[in-house]
Amino acid sequence: MAETTPHQNLTFPSAGGEAHGYLALPESGKGPGVIVIQEWWGLVDHIRDVADRLAAEGFVALAPDLYGGRITHDGAEAGKMMSQLPEEEGARLLAGAVDYLLGSEAVTSKTVGAIGFCMGGGFVLALAAQQGEKIGAAVPFYGVGQGVPDSYAGVRAAVQGHYGKQDSSYPVEKAKAQAEQIKRESGAEVEYFYYDAPHAFHNDENPQGNYRPEEAKLAWKRAVAFLKDKVR
């Protein structure tokens, strides 16, 4: 692995090509690996901050850039950008990120965790289904979009979900059905939490004003503890 700084943009190999992302290292320079998957806005400052916060908790956190540098703060444009990201392309980039972390001298774990938000929450589950034993923990926050897989048979990770009871983008009934489907098809350990909050309640920079600080704090505490317990 090339010499790294605590926080940096980097390029990593992915399916014969190159992908880009943001890497945050803990103070020790080493730790368990976690993939941080962006919302539909792109690799914005909020997602970089999530990676930094995970690094502060001792993780080596990599946030892949699924849009090739494009970001937006407009909901309509974000929806269009998400719809233009083929599921296969997103999965390919994320698989490269997994291999990069598992091959890094900075990563001390034999598996990696995956945490994602909105569109990224859907891709967390797709990545867990695709990568099997390589993913130790999958943490979707209100996952939506084409990344949400149809089958969870390949999931070997423990799964912890965080969903809002007021989320019109992914109603709580769908989330509860999803949790049961994951258990049924994969036999994985699954726990879902439901909050008195709308979609994107964890994003303190959300352009639509959905941030709920108390719910976000509780969900984050649960997610960090879960990742520390399951990613080894």
TrEMBL record:
<feature type="domain" description="Dienelactone hydrolase">
    <location>
        <begin position="21"/>
        <end position="229"/>
    </location>
</feature>
<dbReference type="Pfam" id="PF01738">
    <property type="entry name" value="DLH"/>
</dbReference>
<dbReference type="GO" id="GO:0016787">
    <property type="term" value="F:hydrolase activity"/>
</dbReference>
<dbReference type="InterPro" id="IPR029058">
    <property type="entry name" value="AB_hydrolase_fold"/>
</dbReference>
<dbReference type="InterPro" id="IPR051049">
    <property type="entry name" value="Dienelactone_hydrolase-like"/>
</dbReference>
<dbReference type="InterPro" id="IPR002925">
    <property type="entry name" value="Dienelactn_hydro"/>
</dbReference>
<protein>
    <submittedName>
        <fullName>Carboxymethylenebutenolidase</fullName>
    </submittedName>
</protein>
